[in-house]
């Protein structure tokens, strides 16, 4: 499996878990929402860590660009982590409207973020990082759930 395929698959899996968490929160199925949200948050964090500890440093080393697209992506990861924290607090308080409001903001940010990664950053990584597929698959093997 190529690195791009792995990363795109992770985006799709996170999208599915996000939708499940949103649906269960909307129905005020708090146990289901907590479970789905925990799985979503964990997968998001795992994906962020893969990018921040493996993909981004490899790209920066290969290109010398440390203040370019990877810096933007790291900043967006920080914004998404803040929203995930806010969503977690809303879930703990059983406030569906607040949870869904933060979720709507997160959804827009995720969609924009993923488009940039999928259409710009990942192809640039594939072009510039020698051995990218092996790098990502090795990282994945070391960090399996």
From TrEMBL:
Q: Which residues form a coiled coil?
A: none
Q: Highest taxon of the source?
A: Bacteria
What the entry lists under Pfam families is as follows: Hemerythrin
Name all Hemerythrin-like domain ranges: 3-125
InterPro entries in UniProt? Hemerythrin-like
Q: Where is the signal peptide?
A: none
Q: Which GO terms describe its cellular component?
A: plasma membrane
Q: Which PANTHER family match?
A: BLL2471 PROTEIN-RELATED, DUF438 DOMAIN-CONTAINING PROTEIN
Q: What is the name of this protein?
A: Hemerythrin-like domain-containing protein
Species whose genome carries this gene: Paludibacterium paludis
